[in-house]
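Re: your question about Epoxide hydrolase

S., sorry for the slow reply, the queue was backed up all week. Below is exactly what I fed in.
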Amino acid sequence: MTVQPFRISVPDDVLDDLRIRLSRTRFTTASDSARWAGGTDPDYLRELVAYWAGGFDWRAAEAALNAYPHYLAEVAGRKVHFVHLRGKRADGAPAPLPLVLTHGWPSSFVEMLRVAGPLTDPAAHGGDPADAFDVIIPSLPGFLFSELPAGPFTRRGVAEIWHELMTGTLGYQRFGAFGGDIGGGVTQWLGALYPGEVAGVHVTTAVIATDFGERPPTAEEQAYLDEVAVYDESDGGYSEIMLTRPDTVAAALVDSPAGLVAWIADKYRDWSDCGGDLERRWDKDALLTVATLYWATGTIGSSFRQYYDYHRNAPVPPIEVPGAVTLSREPIFANFPKSLAERIYRDLRHWSRPGRGGHFMPHEEPAQVAEELRVFFRPLRTQG
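Result:
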């Protein structure tokens, strides 16, 4: 299979059109006197739109992104975009362990970039050079530069694509996997399907992927599931529309950059470990880098496909390879019981509640994530 180098290059006319649209934005009024209570705060949105139109330097952001080695490959007949960074091998040490990092929604490969350096060159970041990884960061199908699959978008289907990317396209015989949110589901499927090639799997959002058919929930587990149901009543509106009417909301977001960034910023604030201050974790430049990528590629609608096809996901079978959970500090995981993870992982070797870092943990706490990955994978680097 052919792997081609790729550079991000947004045409000038796309950027000119973006600025014109931003300059003509019509803003709504807040539904509540408490800021952010009804979604993205209109005052913050005005500030963000003004900066996007007149202060944000996309060309500088684009150059920074292009400092990483990007590639396109055809896998399962579809185009897959990924960043591929080779680890620095220490003298006398085994070759760096390949590690595929998978993002979620409404995220992108950008989420993983801050942790890439500490993983590929641990010595330069205060770590042991023997802990180096080769890092592969794909864009999920339908996100940015990766094409949607020919059939439904399922976590299992993405895992099958990633396995082909890692083994067939890149030639790795053994690798580790890490992810959160959708990426966590994909990571779990990699471990379940390919125990011969996957050294271990590590997630930050402990995906509930069991139907409880053979073993009903314990009292603690049921209490947690009830909490999730209550939480979803206040937070689930975004997912309900993307599950049932994705094309309707996508028509608005693909046409309005202000609407697009409002849709994204709402979840970045809710799900980051930011204490209500979005820019503690995602400054305007980082947030607008993601928003511009979605805008320029026109892929916000195709990123919804994994919601629309969600009912096609089967429960993950038991995972025999070593597993690790570094639990996100999101409200939905506050009381997540370890026993739920143990229902899926037959060999759960690492369970951590660091109390820092939310839905986008590799961006929010890169040093923490790098160290958690080093500790978990250190004994798994060699077979046996």
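The longest strand covers residues 78-85. Residues 68-254+298-380 form a domain with the Rossmann fold fold (CATH 3.40.50.1820).

Happy to talk it through on Thursday.
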